[in-house]
Amino acid sequence: MITRDQIATILEEIALLLELKGENPFKIRAYRTGAEVVQTHSEDLLALAGEEDLKPLEAVKGIGSALAKKFHELVTTGKLAFYDDLKAEFPETIFELFEIQGLGPKKVKALYEELGIDSAASLKTACEKGEVAGLSGFGQKTEKKILEAIAFQEANADQFRMGHVAPQVEEIRDALKAHPQTTRVEVAGSYRRGKETVHDLDFLVATPKPKEIMDFFVSQPFVESVINHGSTKSSIRLEDGLQCDLRAVSPEEYPCALVYFTGSKEHNIALRSLALKQGYSLNEYSLSPAEPKSPKTKTTSQASNVTPKKKPPAIHEEADVYKALGLDYIEPELRENAGEIEAAANHSLPRLVETGNLHGTFHNHTTASDGQNSLREMADAAMELGLEYLGIADHSKSSFQANGLDEKRLLKQVAEIRKLNDEFGKKFRIFAGTECDILKDGTLDFDEATLAQLDYSVASVHSSFTLGEAAMTKRIIKAIESPYITMLGHLTGRLLLKREPYAVDIPAVIDAAAATGTIIELNASPWRLDMDWRWWRLAAEKGVRCSINPDAHRTAALQFLYLGVKSARKGWLTKNDVINCLPLSKIETELQRKRASASK
Q1: CATH of 259-345, one of 3.30.210.10, 3.20.20.140, 3.30.1490.190, 3.90.1140.10
Q2: Residue 478: C-alpha distances to residues 391, 513, 599 (Å)
Q3: Domain 355-599 sits in which CATH superfamily?
Q4: Strand partners, 519
Q5: Among candidates 410, 423, 434, which has minimal Cα distance to 379?
Q6: Stretch 549-577: mean pLDDT, rounded?
Q7: Using CA atoms in the order 421, 423, 427, 432, what is the torsion angle rounded to 10 degrees?
Q8: Which CATH number fits domain 4-155: 1.10.150.110, 1.10.12.10, 3.40.50.2300, 3.40.190.10?
């Protein structure tokens, strides 16, 4: 059965192809609007599209009769003739061009029409020959940037974002869990450890009948091709090219196997070394007595120095492996051999933040700028998630491409928020904010008189990414020195697997945040996860607080909070390090802390 996401993708691709053809802009916009409606509408549009009477679907804002008929065709047949005919007019590889950073529909259209470029490979060749620089609107700098973007894309071709694969993880895990011969199942590898990108997915199943599970696994509808089909290990490839490996072990082997296949490699090596020192042998299947070292000569004195075999305690759970080695249980996210084993031995591991600790979140967008849902819809979605508060931070005026708000529109939104808060009473609170652009010289897109009328503000870089490290660092530090900048948004500007972070001295920014009392955001968007988990221990040690924000541009994106928590856990953060773990009764004081300190 076709899904919402698949329909939205088809509509987006239709819009792109129509743009390449130079079709009416209103017609193009209709398909893009349809894609947004499919992803964000609260009603079950697929159920409506499956009915013979399409009037209820046509009545949905943004659909209309023409799109309703296409929805009906997609839902009832799984195909759309109009889409297939449109695709047939272009090479299949044309969509590769839209994946290259810096290329929009207009540039792709020019490349295709004027140079016949229809794939990433042909674009690379044309750039290397200097042909692209000669096109109107391109030039040598653009040509160089395109080559850099292609090189970056090629270097990451076998990587996938954690957020991208999360739905596939759930689908495969649920399928394996439902099999009657499965006693335990878990995803392992770098995904379980919360890495921001993964090369493949590793699944582990405990079962008395491994071959039956393997046969089941390779025959599932999500399988695009079978790489290997064995009796205890199989590998498949999904439609998007992601490889998934499944290993089947006995229930007795499962705890040690889960430790081993979760990794990391460095963590496992350190565990095995510790086990040997204690007289054990630890591998992917068991914890067993280590074989004694054979003496070079069989003298009585030498024989007495041989380490005797040591019987390990019973292992029933993953935690028992760590307990047997004298360690506290180490959460999967921490297993990078970065001090976690020493902390586990000293009983000093942190109690990591959990999704259930969050009371609210900040940095969210509405239809006032480039969001897809209204203020009320975003608030309702946050309440459905059980949150007590939601921070709105639509773009500021310099982000014209995102329909950024000027002072007048911003203050009008503040008034709307205050009115809604009166309606909500004490059960829920919207905090009025802005995502204020940090301009090239470090000044802010709004003056302090305007920012002073808000509950909080997020300062972010959205332009001039090519500044040198010293200039970019100075720019950001100047911005957060304002007492009205509550938090710093997506510190490095990276887009995972699409755009490199800009050059910035992260430790220097962390020091400045500590000195000014500025909160640093952990942007939970699957494209960002920025600030990177590798820097959060340093930030916490400096006393810098974190805010886990989804940067949600639609209601469904509030679910990105899960990814943010996963990344925060990987950064060793506790609920005391994360401001949005504070309840509504305490968060307002925290948001005002920086301003209050500056006024003393």
Answers
A1: 3.30.210.10
A2: 24, 11, 18
A3: Metal-dependent hydrolases (3.20.20.140)
A4: 487
A5: 423
A6: 97
A7: -10
A8: 1.10.150.110
Is the pLDDT at 302 greater than 50? The verdict is: no
For residues 139 and 265, what is the distance between their CA atoms, to the nearest angstrom? 46
Question: 9: which 2 tokens?
Answer: 């993708």
CATH architecture for residues 160-251: 2-Layer Sandwich (3.30)
Cα 104 to Cα 92: distance, rounded to the nearest angstrom = 18
Residue 568 · residue 548 · CB < 8 Å: yes
At residue 304 the predicted structure's pLDDT band, cuts being 50, 70 and 90, is very low
pLDDT above 80 (res 419): yes
Mean pLDDT confidence for 230-249: 96
Cβ atoms within 10 A of the Cβ of 546, count?
Answer: 24
* CA distance to 43, 145, 503, 576, per residue, from 56 (Å): 11, 48, 52, 48
As a residue count, the chain comes to: 600
Q: Which residue has the tokens 């506790």?
A: 574
- The answer to whether residue 300 scores a pLDDT higher than 70 is no
Structure confidence by residue, pLDDT tens digits, 459-468: 999 999 999 9
Q: Please, which pLDDT band fits residue 35 given cuts at 50, 70 and 90?
A: confident
H/E run at residue 363: strand 360-364
- What global pTM score does this model have? 0.86
User: In whole angstroms, what is the distance from residue 33 CA to residue 21 CA?
Assistant: 19
* Average confidence (pLDDT) over 398-427: 95
Separation between Cα atoms, residue 302 and residue 22, nearest integer Å: 86
- Identify the weakest region by mean pLDDT among 1-5, 17-21, 550-554, 574-578: 1-5
